[in-house]
């Protein structure tokens, strides 16, 4: 519309119309105002009144507000403070709630570090598990918790390394202390054996039976001064009296096994138990090989063997303890495998080193030590039959060393003997010798003092040394778990070797040595005759100490009779040989004048001297032993044989003088002189 007005030509007209319209409206407004004016005035008047009242009200409100403001300032301050308090309270409450969740985590972590510091690794590992699975998940959004979570694998590894370090220290410690552990275990075994022996001896004592020592004491009187093995040699391994009352500690008291248990638990918790088992077994195998390597000079002293055994016993005592206190760290198959290896190496080492030993006392002590070693390990359940089998091998070696030692003893006795009958001046000496050697002669007993035994001193000495040898053999057979028959057989075989080889050789050497006199040879015949008679007493002696009757099947007999007979025959042969040599010496003095015209009135001087020598020599044979009948028979036999041998040799030698190639011519006077000599021999 406006556009059409402005675009058209009626703009003026429109303005006129518009002005007219405005004037109309003004008039209408004026009319209306005039109509409502009074009301307007009234309203204005009321408004003015209201303004006054409103002003008053405003003043009152302002005044009230001022008063209120003044009064409310403290309240506002208090409210502000209350607001702050409420805010703080809320914050504190939230903090307490958060700390309630965080504090256990921190406490557990602190406890973990403390356990690590005090090397309580297994509890530390348990604490670490609680921390990881129970506490940290509740506060995982905190930064410090994330650091802890990152540290957990490192802590586990640290615990693993430290526990392994403790295990290595433990392995090194038991390697060093296995000697002491073994010594302790063997002491315990010795004490137990002593206790068993005491218990087993009481019934015998109360039953009135004689013990072995009582039997021995009643059957002979030992010659202490010539004994190569006196009683004190047998007690090498006896625990001293003051030690018997003390309680010997066990392996668990000497060694702290806790590092093994801790490490085993830790590796089990960490899922690496198999790794730990393999490592432990590998290290212990290495240690076993070191322990089983004997020192090169072990055979020189008993202490060398003792230390070697102590280390082996200590090793297996520890392994046995580990077997029974851990579940599967080591098992019976592993222990048996180790023991098989140890047994073979130990036996090989003992065979080698014992072969160097030439001292029977050391061999005997070694045997006692091996028995104690075997008994100790048998007490822990290890099979030791092979050790006892090896002891039977060492027994043969022991017998050889005994034979060598007794060879020297016999040589000393025979060399120091004066080969003359033992004189006795009183009853005490007589009883002493009769106590040492089983000799009975009614005729000699009736004779007054002083008197003489028919034999020389070497008879009772040799007899007692044979008994000492039997004792020495018996000592070795103790505790070998052999039957009485086996012990008896062993003693008899060794004694036979002593008689047939050692003593026989010594007697033969004495008989065959140069410058041995006829008197000595005759005394040897007398001595061997008495020793031959004593063989039955040696048989009884062995029977008494072994309790095996000689009638038992397979019982070995003593060959002493043969030995002494052979020695006597050798002495007789030596007498015949010596007589012939003496005759030859006299015949060398023969100086016949084969061209003499007349014989002398008497026999040749050399022959007279020879016959005088033979007469004095045959007088010696009256000392040959035996009772009246046996004496005459024995002396007659030896004297007759010696006489026949001498006469035969003399006649042959005289015939040789006649038939010598140098004698080309004889006179009747020379033959008559020779005939005088032959007649002198016949006379």
Automatic annotation (TrEMBL):
GO terms for cellular component: exocyst; plasma membrane. InterPro entries: EXOC6/Sec15, EXOC6/Sec15_C, EXOC6/Sec15_C_dom1, EXOC6_Sec15_N, EXOC6PINT-1/Sec15/Tip20_C_dom2. Residues 17-186 form the Exocyst complex component EXOC6/Sec15 N-terminal domain. Keywords: Coiled coil, Exocytosis, Transport. GO terms for biological process: Golgi to plasma membrane transport; intracellular protein transport; vesicle tethering involved in exocytosis. Residues 15-85 form a coiled coil. Gene3D superfamilies: Dsl1p vesicle tethering complex, Tip20p subunit, domain D, Exocyst complex subunit Sec15 C-terminal domain, N-terminal subdomain. The keyword Transport applies. Residues 386-682 form the Exocyst complex subunit EXOC6/Sec15 C-terminal domain. Pfam families: EXOC6_Sec15_N (PF20651), Sec15_C (PF04091). Belongs to the SEC15 family. This is EXC6B protein. The gene is Exoc6b.
């Amino acid at each position: 519309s406006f556009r059409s007005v402005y675009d058209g030509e009626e703009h003026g007209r429109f303005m006129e119309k518009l002005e007219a319209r405005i004037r109309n409206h003004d008039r209408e407004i004026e009319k209306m105002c005039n109509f409502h004016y009074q009301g307007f005035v009234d309203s204005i008047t009321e408004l003015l009144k209201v303004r006054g009242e409103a002003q008053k009200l405003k003043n009152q409100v302002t005044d009230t507000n001022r008063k209120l403001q003044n009064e409310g300032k403290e309240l506002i301050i208090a409210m502000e403070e209350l607001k702050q308090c409420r805010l703080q309270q809320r914050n504190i409450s939230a903090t307490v709630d958060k700390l309630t969740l965080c504090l256990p985590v921190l406490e557990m972590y602190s406890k973990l570090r403390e356990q690590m510091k005090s090397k309580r690794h297994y509890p530390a590992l348990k604490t670490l598990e609680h921390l990881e699975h129970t506490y940290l998940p509740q506060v995982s959004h905190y930064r410090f918790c994330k650091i802890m979570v990152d540290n957990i694998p490192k802590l586990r590894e640290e615990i693993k390394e430290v526990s392994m370090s403790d295990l290595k220290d433990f392995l090194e410690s038991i390697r060093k202390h296995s000697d002491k552990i073994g010594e302790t275990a063997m002491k315990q075994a010795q004490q137990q054996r002593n206790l068993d022996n005491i218990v087993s001896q009481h019934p015998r004592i109360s039953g009135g039976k004689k013990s072995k020592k009582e039997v021995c004491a009643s059957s002979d009187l030992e010659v202490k001064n010539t004994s190569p093995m006196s009683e004190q040699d047998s007690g090498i391994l006896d625990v001293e009296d003051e030690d018997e009352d003390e309680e010997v500690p066990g392996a668990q008291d000497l060694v702290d096994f806790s590092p093994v248990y801790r490490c085993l638990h830790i590796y089990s918790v960490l899922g690496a138990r198999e790794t730990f088992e393999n490592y432990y077994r590998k290290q212990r195998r290495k240690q076993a090989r070191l322990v089983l390597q004997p020192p090169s000079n072990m055979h020189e002293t008993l202490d060398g063997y003792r230390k070697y055994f102590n280390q082996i016993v200590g090793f297996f005592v520890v392994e046995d303890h580990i077997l029974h206190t851990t579940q599967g760290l080591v098992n019976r198959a592993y222990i048996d495998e180790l023991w098989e290896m140890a047994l073979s190496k130990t036996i090989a080492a003992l065979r080698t080193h014992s072969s160097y030993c030439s001292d029977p006392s050391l061999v005997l002590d070694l045997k006692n030590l091996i028995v104690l070693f075997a008994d100790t390990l048998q007490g822990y359940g290890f099979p030791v039959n092979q050790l006892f089998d090896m002891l039977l091998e060492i027994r043969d070696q022991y017998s050889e060393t005994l034979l060598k030692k007794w060879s020297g003893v016999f040589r000393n006795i025979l060399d120091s003997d004066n080969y003359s009958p033992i004189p006795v001046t009183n009853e005490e000496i007589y009883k002493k010798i009769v106590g040492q050697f089983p000799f009975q002669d009614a005729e000699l007993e009736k004779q007054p003092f002083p008197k003489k035994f028919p034999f020389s001193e070497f008879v009772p000495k040799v007899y007692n040394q044979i008994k000492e040898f039997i004792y020495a053999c018996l000592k070795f057979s103790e505790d070998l778990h052999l039957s009485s028959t086996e012990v008896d057989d062993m003693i008899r075989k060794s004694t036979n070797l002593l008689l047939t080889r050692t003593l026989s050789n010594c007697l033969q050497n004495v008989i065959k040595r140069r410058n041995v006199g006829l008197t000595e040879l005759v005394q040897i015949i007398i001595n061997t005759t008495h020793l031959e008679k004593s063989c039955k007493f040696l048989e009884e002696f062995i029977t008494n100490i072994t309790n095996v009757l000689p009638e038992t099947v397979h019982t070995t007999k003593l060959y002493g009779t043969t030995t002494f007979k052979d020695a006597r025959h050798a002495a007789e042969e030596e007498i015949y040989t010596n007589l012939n040599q003496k005759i030859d010496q006299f015949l060398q003095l023969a100086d016949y004048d084969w061209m003499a015209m007349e014989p002398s009135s008497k026999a040749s001087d050399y022959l007279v001297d020879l016959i005088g020598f033979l007469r004095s020599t045959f007088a010696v044979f009256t000392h040959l032993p035996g009772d009246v009948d046996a004496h005459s028979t024995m002396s007659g036999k030896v004297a007759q044989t010696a006489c026949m041998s001498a006469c035969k040799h003399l006649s042959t030698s005289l015939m040789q003088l006649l038939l010598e190639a140098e004698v080309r011519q004889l006179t009747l006077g020379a033959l008559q002189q020779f005939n005088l000599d032959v007649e002198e021999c016949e006379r």
